[in-house]
Every structure is written in C-alpha cells, then in structure tokens.
C-alpha cells in the first residue's frame, strides 16, 4: 500500500483537476434540475478509453469526497474485471474506503444493473451509459432528436413500440427500456434489464448517468416519477423467471443468471453478487418494492 | 315575382395571347324571368345562347350589366357576387346542364347521377334508389347502371347528364340542348320530367334547336342573333 | 356576400416566402410583371409573395401554375414544412380563428398539424416513414393526437385502409413493398386519420399511371363528399383541377395572377398567363 499512496500523490485528489470537476458538477446540477434531460459536458480525457466506463468515472470522480464509501458493480457483480479495475483506480486516486456491501456504500457506480437491495436517501447511484439517446433507434440525426425532446414529440418512439408489438406480439426491448421521467422527457435508463426499471420510480437515492463517449450527463433526482412507456392495452412487464429459482438459496424474487455446469445441466443464480452473499449468510437485506415483484409468488 | 332580372348585360372576350383581340359575344341583353317560368333561348349557332347561359352561371364573367337573381335569401347580383356566394347558390339553387357530359372517370353511372344529391342526402342508399328510378324512366339499359359513362354513346351520356341535373330538384335550372340526340320517346320523357319540375316551382332556361321540345316546354322564347335579342315572344300554346 | 363572409375555415393574408436577404424593393421588382422571381438588386428569390385567400369549410380550392410558380410553397408554409417570411394565417378550429397559426410555437404548430390538418405529398416518401409498416404510419398520426390504445389504433387503421381500398391484410407490411398508387392511398389514410377539417394535396397524382390516377382522384372526391373535408389541391394538371375543385387560384412567379370559380378560370380566363395556360393544356 505504500507504493499506492506515493503513486496517488502525483495526481490531484480524484484524478480530475478541480476546474474540470466544477464544470462536471455544474452540468450535474443542471441535469438534476431538469430530470431526464441530457446535458452536454466536456468529457475530459481519462486513463481508460472512452466507451469503457469513462462517463460513470467522470461523475464518480467529480462528486466523490474523502468520507465516501465506494462500491462498484458490473452486471451486478463486484468481482468482474471492469469493476475491479475501476475500483482500484478510484481507490488509488482518492484513498477512499471501498466496499462490497450495498447498504454500507454511499456512492455506487454501476454498469447495467441496479442493486437488488433498496437504495437510501444517503446514497448516490452512478451509471456508465453507452448510448444516452433513447430516440437514436428511430432518428439518426442529433439535431432532430434534440428538437424532438424539446417539443416532447415522441410519436416515433411510440410507433417503434407499436411496430415491435405488431411484429412479435410483445414489446421486444430487453435492456434499456425507454422511460418517461417526471412526465416530460423520455430517457434511456442505460441498458439495465426491464427488471430494474420500476426501481427507478420514486427511488430514495439520487441517480446520475454519465455517457463519456457521447458526452452527455443526465439525472433522476430522489422521489421522481419514472414510468416505463406502455400502451393502454399493451403493458410493460419485467422479465419472466417463472418456474426457476436461485439454486444456491432457492430465492425467486430477484434477477437471475443462467449457468451451465460441466455436466451440461442448467441452473439459475442471483445476478447481484452482494445480495446473493447476504442471502447465503442468512441475512435478510431489504429489497426494492414494486408492483411487479409483489405479483411474484415466493 | 321575377326570379331573374337581366339588364344591360354584355360580354366581350379579350384574348391577350392573340394580340389583345376582342370578341364581342353579347350586346346589351335585357330580359326578366318569372318564378316557375320556362324560357327557351333560340337562335343560330354562334348567336350567343350558350354565352348568355354561361354568364348567368358565372362560368363567364360578364363585362357590363347586372344579373339580379332572387335567391331564397334575397336578391344577388350574379355578376358581382363573391365566388363563395356563387358556390353556395350552385350547391343549393342553381344547376347548369351543359351539352356535354363531364365526369370523373371510373365513377359508375348511378353514382354520377347521384352526385348532386349526395351533397344534401347523407343516406347513400336512398340517393341511389332515386337515381335508379330516374335512369329507369329515361330507359337507360339496366346493365349500364354500374358502368362508366365515359364509354357511353351520345344519347346515353345525354340522359345521364339530364338525370344528374334534375335529380336534386334545383330552384333555377339552366339546360343546354336536353333533347338533342334522343329518340322521340325519350325526348317526351325528358320533357315530362322538366315539366314536372316546373310544376314544383322550378324556373328553367332552356337552349334548344328542336321545335317540338320548345313547343312543349316553353312559356316564352327569346331569340338571339349576333349577341343581341331580336325578339321576345309568348309561346303559341299559351 | 356579407351573409357568410365570416364563415371561412382558413384565412390567409399576404403570405410571403423569400430566400436570401431581400431589401425593401425585392417584392416590387419581382413577379409576373417582370417575369421573374429573382430580385435584380439582392439576388434573393421570392418563392411566393402577398398570397391572400379564404377557404370555406368543405370547399376544394385548386392552385395551378407552372413549376417554380410557388404553388407548393404556399401549402408547405401552411403545413409548417417551411418558415414564412411574412404574412399570417388563421384556422377557425384553432382558438376560434383568433390567433395567427404561423406565429405559434413549434409545439402548438405540431398540435395544429396533427389534429387539424393532413398533407398528401407528391412523393410518398415525404409523407410516409418507409421504416414503419403502413399500420405503423397511421398509428404515428393517431399517437400524435393522443391515442395510446393499440387495439383502437389497429381498428382505426384497418377502417382507414378499407376506405382507401388498401387490402387490410397488408397493414403490417412496409409501404416500400407497395405499388405507387397503393403508397399514395396509404398516405391519404394517414393524412385523414384524425378526421382533419383541412387537407393539403400536393401534386398527388403526378407520376402515377392513368388508371391509378383515376382511382386516386375518385377516392379524394369520395372522401370530400363523405367527410366534408376542405382541401387545397396543388397541381399543374388542369384536368385534376377541373375534376376536384370548386375554385382555383392561378399562380405565376410567386404571385396570384387570377382567382375565380374553376369553370370560369378554365373557360373564361381573364389574365394573359391564365389564357396561355388554359390554351396550351386543352
């Protein structure tokens, strides 16, 4: 650890210089003030390539304080390569305490998942976003999508949902299901599974989204209404894990991963590694509450 | 009561594209028409009969003079009235039936006849039954009812044209050569139809070269020559 | 005249569109008198100027003129496809005709466009999104007017396709795979999806073969009779104008040179240019 401290001292606290941090914080304030609105920002150079989590890292490094306890997950796991490297980087640059425990963390960075454990008012949740523009699939030009957001002209998005239903009998969007924030802007909730989308609604935590390659920041402040787009007669629904359960804990009300063992047999396991660990330890972590989870029989 | 009072009506065409050549078509036309009257316009080809009729219908813009028409909503000068007022009158009161049938291609005969009726009658089936009734009286072969009139013979087109003009029972009918290419029997049917309209109060201005038609229809005749009225006479049978 | 002078559906006054940087002489030095719409002083182009007319409910108005006369510009300005340079337009069903719709915000314009107007373009690609199915294209218009019920949307779409004689079986096909006439009929379905009181038709039959043309004309005529939609028909084809319209405006070099009842324009044209137009086409 001696070496680490020496290394960290070569840099400003949290790597980014203070002027740039200020710029990012100002943009974050604007994003919080207009929930769901994409704010352009500088996206400064980082020691990792754009598109590898720089957006999330910018946000984390701009807002992290010396007292913060940092947790980072990638696809629900604390142990994946991306999470480990970024955790190590943040730790080296800030010397902040890091943790795997969701309830202990004050600042959580994530790629593609929201924790199963409920977030609190004392937590900030930071997303690494690859594509911040929910309308990109229906409109390729940026000047047009900005105009569409400005005028709340979302018919094309709705038609694409309609088309998806007509083609497949269901709205076939897995990750990144478009949501309407505060009844105004349509937002891409980064590619989190449908399972996580209802957990954004009226969440107690502050959610910040950073897209480094696309140079956009946006936010969902605490206690904001976030609704998945749905028709009056064709409703949004979460992933269906009917007839399956976590093979280690027997738990059914969490987002599950599919595992194949060496003998070819198929098993399911809870995707959120910290949540799984807690269940294995016979703790009972408080989960998010939403109507989709309630509908499930345990 | 006069439904129509025409005073000092004249029409001159100014052909800009032929070095501003001027053609005088009507000169100082004056006449009146009583409500429910049938007036025949006679005269040789080129004497201005059709021009006069078109001036009354505003297909031609009169150069000078007044055409006072007493509509259901009061007197209107058809020379100066606003286009929308004329459209309104054409829809509700005044119908013009030319010598030639002009229709949208590919509309069945029965619907062509109904066209004016559809404007007022929302019940399409009822309108069509009226139209069938009329075509039956006019002796149009049954298998032509659903065919397209563009392909019809002269006499068949003529009957469609007349039926279309009178089906909605206009208040003022301008009709150009209604019996020209019809056989004696059908001629009588058409004449009877127009007389029936007259009995219901329609005023009719008719152009014809056919003495028999004129004799049976007209209360009065106006004879034109070189764009001027040369005589106005009461019909012999009155 | 005074009896129904207040009965208009659409009132347009002094509508003007100029490209470039005009000066105060630009409008005076262009037009049919100069046989040009390019300003000699500034080189700005007067697409249309001083266009004024009233359109009545259920009325069909034709706009004729040669290519470049500004006839399409007029409807594109009124449908907000272009920004006006000057002039105003009022639509009765919008704020009871008390607000100039051309000066409204984009959001309000979108509302007017989606709820009170329809447009059929010469090229179906301008009016239809070829990445969506024909049903999806109609859905777009319905969704824009606030319908978020898939069942109702599909019901309405199949009614409309039925009315315009597009086989309902092809509702979930993309219009890219349709014939030109069928694409045009899908476009018409979309344009009338929200029962607008006003429909713009910009050269809708140009480029279709004669038999298809006749079917499209017949359809438009029928819609007009059944639904009482007021229409502005832009065409250089006088026979289209003759069959569809009650009243006609003749345009040249961006100006109205003559307006009147369609049969009068065709049989007794007053202006030199209208006489030329009529005599060269009949």
Automatic annotation (TrEMBL), chain A:
One of its GO terms (molecular function) is lyase activity. Pfam families: PhnJ. It comes from the Bacteria. GO terms for biological process: organic phosphonate catabolic process. InterPro entries: PhnJ. This is Protein phnJ.
From TrEMBL, chain B:
Pfam families: ABC_tran (PF00005). One of its GO terms (molecular function) is ATP hydrolysis activity. SUPFAM superfamilies: P-loop containing nucleoside triphosphate hydrolases. Residues 4-238 form the ABC transporter domain. InterPro entries: AAA+_ATPase, ABC_transporter-like_ATP-bd, ABC_transporter-like_CS, P-loop_NTPase. Keywords: ATP-binding, Nucleotide-binding, Translocase. It comes from the Bacteria. Belongs to the ABC transporter superfamily. This is Phosphonates transport ATP-binding protein PhnL.
TrEMBL record, chain C:
It comes from Mucilaginibacter polytrichastri. Residues 10-278 form the ABC transporter domain. This is Phosphonates transport ATP-binding protein PhnK. InterPro entries: AAA+_ATPase, ABC_transporter-like_ATP-bd, ABC_transporter-like_CS, P-loop_NTPase, PhnK. One of its GO terms (molecular function) is ATP hydrolysis activity. Pfam families: ABC_tran. It comes from the Bacteria. One of its GO terms (biological process) is organic phosphonate catabolic process. Keywords: ATP-binding, Nucleotide-binding.
């Amino acid at each position: 650890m001696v070496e680490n401290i020496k290394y960290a001292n070569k840099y400003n606290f949290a790597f980014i210089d203070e002027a740039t941090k200020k710029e990012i914080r100002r943009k974050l304030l604007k994003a919080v003030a207009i929930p769901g609105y994409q704010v352009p920002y500088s996206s400064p150079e980082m020691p990792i390539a754009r598109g590898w989590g720089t957006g999330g890292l910018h946000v984390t490094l701009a807002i992290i304080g010396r007292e913060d306890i940092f947790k980072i997950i990638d696809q629900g796991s604390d142990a994946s390569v991306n999470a480990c490297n970024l955790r190590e980087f943040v730790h080296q640059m800030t010397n902040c305490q890091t943790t795997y425990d969701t309830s202990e963390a004050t600042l959580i960075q994530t790629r593609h998942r929201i924790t199963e454990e409920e977030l609190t008012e004392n937590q900030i949740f930071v997303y690494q976003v690859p594509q911040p523009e929910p309308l990109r699939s229906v409109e390729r030009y940026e000047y047009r999508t900005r105009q569409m957001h400005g005028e709340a002209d979302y018919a094309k998005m709705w038609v694409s949902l309609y088309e998806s239903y007509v083609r497949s009998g269901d709205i076939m969007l897995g990750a990144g299901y478009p949501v309407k924030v505060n009844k105004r802007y349509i937002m891409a909730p980064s590619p989190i599974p449908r399972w996580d989308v209802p957990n954004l609604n009226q969440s107690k935590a502050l959610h910040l989204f950073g897209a480094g390659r696309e140079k956009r920041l946006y936010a969902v402040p605490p206690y904001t209404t976030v609704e998945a787009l749905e028709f009056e007669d064709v409703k949004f629904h979460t992933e269906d894990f009917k007839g399956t359960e976590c093979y280690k804990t027997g738990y059914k009300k969490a987002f599950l991963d599919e595992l194949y063992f060496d003998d070819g047999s198929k098993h399911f396991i809870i995707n959120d590694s910290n949540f799984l660990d807690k269940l294995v330890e016979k703790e009972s972590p408080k989960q998010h509450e939403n109507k989709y989870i309630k509908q499930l029989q345990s | 009561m006069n439904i129509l009072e025409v005073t000092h009506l004249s029409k001159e065409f100014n052909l800009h594209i032929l070095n501003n050549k001027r053609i005088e078509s009507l000169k100082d036309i004056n006449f009146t028409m009583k409500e429910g009257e049938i007036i025949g316009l006679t005269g040789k080809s080129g004497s201005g009969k059709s021009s006069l009729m078109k001036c009354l219908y505003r297909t031609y813009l009169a150069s000078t003079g007044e055409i006072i028409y007493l509509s259901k909503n009061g007197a209107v000068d058809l020379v100066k009235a606003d286009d929308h007022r004329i459209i309104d009158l054409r829809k509700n009161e005044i119908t013009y039936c030319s010598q030639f049938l002009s229709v949208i291609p590919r509309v069945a005969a029965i619907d062509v006849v109904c066209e004016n009726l559809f404007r007022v009658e929302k019940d399409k089936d009822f309108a069509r039954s009226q139209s069938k009734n009329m075509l039956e009286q006019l002796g149009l072969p049954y298998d032509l009812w659903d065919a397209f009139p563009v392909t019809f013979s002269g006499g068949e087109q003529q009957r469609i044209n007349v039926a279309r003009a009178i089906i909605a029972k206009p208040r003022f009918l301008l009709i150009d050569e209604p019996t020209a290419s019809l056989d004696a029997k059908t001629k009588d049917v058409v004449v009877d139809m127009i007389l029936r309209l007259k009995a219901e109060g329609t005023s009719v201005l008719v152009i014809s070269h056919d003495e028999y038609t004129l004799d049976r229809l007209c209360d009065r005749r106006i004879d034109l020559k070189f764009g001027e009225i040369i005589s106005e006479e009461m019909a012999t049978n009155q | 005249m005074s009896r129904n002078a207040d009965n208009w559906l659409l009132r347009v006054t002094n509508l003007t569109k100029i490209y470039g940087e005009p000066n105060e002489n630009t409008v005076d030095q262009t037009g049919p008198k100069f046989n040009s719409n390019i300003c000699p002083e500034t080189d700005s182009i007067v697409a249309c100027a001083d266009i004024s007319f009233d359109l009545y409910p259920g009325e069909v108005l034709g706009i004729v003129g040669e290519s470049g006369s500004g006839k399409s510009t007029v409807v594109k300005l009124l449908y907000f496809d272009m920004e006006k340079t000057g002039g105003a337009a009022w639509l009765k069903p919008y704020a009871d005709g008390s607000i100039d719709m051309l000066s409204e915000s984009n959001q309000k314009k979108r509302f007017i466009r989606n709820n009170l107007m329809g447009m059929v373009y010469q090229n179906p690609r301008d009016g239809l999104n070829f990445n969506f199915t024909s049903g999806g294209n109609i859905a777009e218009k319905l969704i824009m007017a606030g319908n978020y019920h898939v069942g109702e949307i599909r019901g309405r779409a199949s009614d409309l396709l039925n009315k315009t004689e597009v086989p309902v079986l092809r509702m979930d096909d993309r219009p890219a795979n349709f014939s030109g006439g069928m694409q045009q009929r899908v476009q018409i379905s979309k344009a009338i999806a929200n029962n607008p009181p006003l429909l713009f038709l910009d050269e809708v039959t140009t480029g279709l073969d004669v038999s298809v043309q006749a079917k499209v004309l017949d359809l438009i005529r029928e819609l007009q009779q059944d639904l009482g939609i007021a229409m502005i028909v832009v065409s250089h084809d006088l026979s289209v104008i003759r069959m569809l319209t009650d009243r006609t405006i003749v345009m040249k070099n961006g100006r109205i040179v003559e307006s009147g009842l369609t049969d009068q324009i065709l049989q007794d044209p007053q202006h030199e240019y209208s006489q030329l137009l009529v005599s060269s086409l009949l």
